[in-house]
Amino acid sequence: MSIKTDLMLQYYRDVWENGELEKIESYFTPQDHDQYIVEGKKIVPSEIREWVSIIRSFVTDIKVTVLQSVEEGDWLALMLRIDCLRVDTRTPVRVHQQIMFRFDGNLKAESYPFFDFLNFFEQLGQLPEDVHALLLAGTNLD
Questions:
Q1: Which of 3, 84, 103, 134 has a CA that sits 20 to 30 A from residue 76's CA?
Q2: SUPFAM superfamilies under this entry (predicted)?
Q3: pLDDT tens digit sequence for 55-68
C-alpha cells in the first residue's frame, strides 16, 4: 500500500475504530480545506468529530477495510468496507464508503466522501427493508 493509504488506514483506526476523536485535526492541514459529506455543504474537522460520534452512538466494534485504492499525484481514492455491530442488538452491520482525498504533504487538504446512509440506516432498523428498491419504485416514505 502507499504512504497515503497507510495514513488513511491509521486515521480510520484512530478515529473510527478506536474513537480517538481528538486526533481528527492532526490529520488535516491547518489551512482552510474543503471537506464535504453532502455536496455543497462544506464542513470543518470539528464537525467530522460530531458526525463520527453520532455514527459511533449507533454501532460499536468498528473495523474499516480498504477494498481498493487509487493514487494519482496528491489525490487518493478509497473504496472502504466498514464492519461493525449495532449497539442495541449486537447484530452485524456492513456498509461501504467511497472517498477521495487531496493531500498537502502527509495531511488531508480536501476530502469528498460518499457514505451509504440508506443501507446503514436500513440495517439499523430506522428505514424499511429494501428501502432503495422501494424508493426506486416510487414509494413515498411518510
A1: 84
A2: NTF2-like
A3: 999 999 999 999 99
Domain membership of residue 126 as a residue range: 3-136
> What confidence score (pLDDT) does residue 65 get?
98
Q: Look at residue 34 and tell me whether its pLDDT is greater than 70.
A: no
- Is residue 71 one of the residues assigned to a domain? yes
Output the CA torsion sign for 41, 111, 80, 55: negative
Residue 46, pLDDT score: 79
The pLDDT of residue 130 is: 94
76 lies in a domain? yes
Residue 22 is placed in which grid cell?
481528538
For residue 82, give the CATH number of its domain.
3.10.450.50
Alpha carbon separation from 105 to 26, 39, 42, 68 (Å, rounded): 13, 25, 22, 22
